[in-house]
Design a protein that fits this description.
One of its GO terms (molecular function) is transmembrane transporter activity. It is a single chain. This protein is mostly helical. It has a single domain, classed as Amino acid/polyamine transporter I. Helix content is 79%, strand content 0%. The chain is globular. 53% of the residues are buried. The N terminus is likely disordered.
Length: 500
């Protein structure tokens, strides 16, 4: 495989960095874990306020922009049309941004908050309200605001301003058009690749563990390394095949299938579950969530619970932003800024609220003692809860299949994005690059899974993504500069047209 020397320095640096991280985790997992944990603890203790306040800024700015005078600007030429229907667009951005996480945490998170709530007695009605409110908070508007802001900026520069889709290129107003060739630009792009592949590999590992746990719980298939290796090999073949097929042939079809299966799973669960309680918790959860949004504005004085949950989640969503944002940008040509923000913020958030209301209610409804046992192992919590309901085994089988399809979609989206990032923002990177990244992320997941360092990879990716707090804050400044310049240019053109 041949690359132009000027084109692949980011690719080379990224590969070397990732190989070094993997070797460190394999050769010395103790030091790897010690340093990673120390770094994460320091970051959460010292900069938790920064995460909390920044996430609020991202959400407020996104909403402001949607209602601003720039809302009608298209992500593309004025006469451009969206490449994908609303259904396919929502399906792809949802599959890339949340899919596998909802299946993994849809039961486990509400159960954790129900058994061990902050400041109140577990297993009570107040604990149920707390569980729903916090699950909504962690999976609602805030993470999608991060994705929306980064994706909107990248879509604007590539489709409106005609610059390559690189994380670094958004800083053109501050550093000039050649930023991607400068050291600071290369540093930003390497950091984005590292965060992307770390997050993708972690999801591959977590998905593998849950699929294996589900197969073990339902069919007594052994829960061991051999089975997990087989799962990764099968999934790797599928997602590389899908990624090589491109967005239209592979990723779009699988994403549409994901949404169809997710809706079917959700509908069946609502029917066999305590339907009235589910709807009641959805309404109460929305009400409490709205109140909680205002209460969370103050970023100071938060305790250990926030460090373990909210701040950790905020760090994790920011770590995922380069991957999800780049992919959402790629599929959003032709949308207006207002349409884009409302679509990315509201639709996935509402789906997440329904999801947690349904599966969270089913979880807390099985009783405190059974619920306490269910959260003993996160990867089997879903299947244990479903076993307490009629047709629970059917739901569990559908969930395993959905895990697999979400698994493939997240991985092939990441592979596609990594190809773009390492090929100067090329919208349709060549198959060889996608195959390389597909194999690398699977090997990374496999290596860390076998060495027991999967959680540490997650920790390291969150630590490494810390600079993205400042990068996304910088995006706000640069996007405003771009939009103001465009407005001035349009006013000048209009005056010239009037005088002619």
């Amino acid at each position: 495989m041949k690359f132009n020397k000027n084109d692949n320095s980011v690719l080379k640096i990224s590969l070397v960095l990732i190989i070094c991280i993997v070797m460190w985790g394999l050769i010395s997992p103790n030091s790897f874990g010690f340093i990673g944990n120390k770094a994460l603890s320091y970051m959460v203790d010292k900069f938790g306020w920064l995460y909390l306040s920044s996430m609020t800024v991202f959400l407020v700015f996104s909403i402001f922009l949607a209602f601003s005078k720039y809302g009608n600007i298209k992500l593309g030429d004025d006469d451009s049309k969206p490449e994908y229907s609303y259904i396919s667009w929502f399906a792809m951005l949802f599959s890339a941004g949340m899919g596998i996480g909802l299946v993994f945490w849809g039961v486990a998170e509400p159960l954790n908050h129900y058994i061990n709530p902050m400041g109140i007695t577990g297993g009570t009605e107040n604990a149920v309200n707390f569980a729903m409110k916090k699950s909504f908070f962690h999976w609602g508007l805030h993470p999608w605001a991060v994705y929306s802001l980064l994706a909107l900026s990248l879509a604007y520069i590539q489709f409106r301003k005609k610059y390559p889709c690189l994380i670094s290129n958004m800083f053109i107003p501050l550093f000039g058009r050649n930023i991607s060739k400068k050291k600071i630009g290369k540093f930003i792009d390497v950091l984005a690749i590292f965060a992307t592949i770390s997050g993708a590999a972690t999801s591959l590992g977590l998905g593998t563990l849950q699929i294996n746990s589900g197969l073990n719980y339902l069919f007594n298939i052994p829960e061991n390394k051999i089975v997990q290796i087989i799962i990764i090999i099968v999934v790797t073949f599928l997602f590389i095949y899908s990624a090589v097929g491109g967005v239209d042939k592979g990723i779009k079809i699988l994403s549409n299938l994901n949404v169809l299966m997710a809706v079917m799973l959700l509908a069946v669960a609502m029917i066999i579950g305590p339907t009235s309680e589910i709807l009641n918790n959805f309404i109460n959860g929305m009400s409490n969530y709205g109140k909680d949004l205002l209460a969370e504005v103050n970023p100071f004085g938060k305790g250990d619970w926030y460090k373990s949950w909210t701040i950790f989640y905020w760090a994790w969503w920011i770590a995922w932003a380069p991957f999800v944002g780049t992919f959402i940008a790629r599929i959003s040509k032709g949308r207006t800024i207002r349409e884009f923000i409302f679509g990315v913020l509201l639709v996935p958030s509402i789906v997440s609220f329904f999801w947690f209301s349904t599966f969270g209610t089913m979880a807390v409804n099985i009783g405190y003692d059974t619920a306490s046992k269910a959260i003993g192992k996160t990867s089997t919590a879903f299947f244990i809860v479903m076993s307490n309901y009629p047709y629970g085994k059917v739901i569990s089988i559908i969930a395993i299949i959905l895990l697999g399809t979400f698994f493939v979609t997240s991985a092939d989206s990441a592979t596609f994005v990594l190809g773009m990032m390492s090929r100067k923002g090329k919208l349709n990177p060549d198959s060889k690059v996608k195959i390389i990244w597909g194999i690398v992320q699977s090997l990374l997941a496999l290596a860390l899974l076998l060495s027991g360092g999967l959680k540490m990879l997650q920790t390291m990716s969150i630590v490494a993504a810390f600079p993205f707090v400042f990068i996304i804050l910088g995006y706000i400044v640069c996007l405003v500069k771009f939009l103001r310049e465009e407005k001035i240019e349009n006013e000048v053109k209009e005056k010239i047209r009037m005088f002619k």
